[in-house]
Amino acid sequence: MPNTALITGASSGIGTGFARYHASQGGDVILTARREDTLNALKTELEAKYGITAHVFAMDLGAPGGADALYDAVKAAGLPVDILINNAGFGAIDRFMESDLATQQGIIDLNVKALVTLTHRFGQDMVAQGSGKILNVGSTAGFMPGPRQAIYFASKAFVNSFSQAVSHELRHTGVSCTVLAPGYVETEFAKVADMEGTALATNGATPEAVAKHGYDAMMQGKLLTINDPKLRFMLNWITPLLPRRTVLKMVSKMQAK
Ligand SMILES: NC(=O)c1ccc[n+]([C@@H]2O[C@H](COP(=O)([O-])OP(=O)(O)OC[C@H]3O[C@@H](n4cnc5c(N)ncnc54)[C@H](OP(=O)(O)O)[C@@H]3O)[C@@H](O)[C@H]2O)c1
Fold this sequence. Notes:
This protein is an alpha/beta fold and 257 residues long. Helix 1 packs parallel to helix 2 (36-50). Helix 5 links the parallel strand 5 and strand 6 (175-180). The chain has helices at residues 13-24, 36-50, 66-76, 101-129, 150-169, 189-193, 207-219, 229-238, 244-254, and strands spanning 4-8, 28-33, 54-58, 83-86, 132-137, 175-180, 224-225. Strands 3-2-1-4-5-6-7 form a seven-stranded parallel sheet, sandwiched between helices. The structure holds NADP nicotinamide-adenine-dinucleotide phosphate (NAP). NADP nicotinamide-adenine-dinucleotide phosphate is lined by residues 9-15, 33-35, 60-62, 87-90, 110, 137, 139, 182, 184-185, 187-189, 192, 207.
């Protein structure tokens, strides 16, 4: 069975977790992120441990044309993509009006634009061949507005919404689209977003557990999955009933230093 997975953001955190888990099932991997050395070290580790083949494409997916360049490079190398895991993403804590606009736009470029481009381009190939799986990494942050991280939360609301709509459109094509919405995970994310020390960045899940949860849900063709059962209950049954201003206050407070 063809079983090659392209994983974005594979140099760290949940992305490395996806790569290790997929390789442990005997699947080949296409690893991409900006840090080439880290990707090469992961390639060496996975090939030695699992006897699979790993391919490395060090690229900046947030750069203009970055996602298209990745697609073109993978096609030029003649590699099949049976599974696409759109995992690369970042956030940045700051009040929007005081924030660096280029950084905020960079979040949209990576979390939204690159994910849309890769879903469209590899997704079209999957539909043409009548099989394939797409896993998009959204977030529980996508379930509510996020004062102090307005753009990041909105980017994940986009991913959550977009992925479910595409999943519906893909019914009967042989291609599935699943969205994983994790709660807080102990990765480099909090450092990159300058969230360390906030209430939101505590008691995180491990990236390995979250990757396994999302990967298994993708294999089952699930629509949307939240890894943490308490958060799942809260977001589905409590948060929607709370006054909007209360939710906004809570989220802002949880991200204060
Ligand atoms: N950690 C959490 O609490 C949490 C919760 C919910 C959702 N998520 C989502 O989970 C996903 C993975 O995050 P993580 O927690 O594993 O964070 P992480 O450890 O910071 O990993 C982020 C990955 O994205 C890559 N990346 C960042 N900018 C990139 C760019 N311009 N081009 C290509 N690759 C880029 C990074 O690699 P390079 O630096 O080498 O490029 C890294 O491999 C993200 O979409 C995040 O929003 C995280």
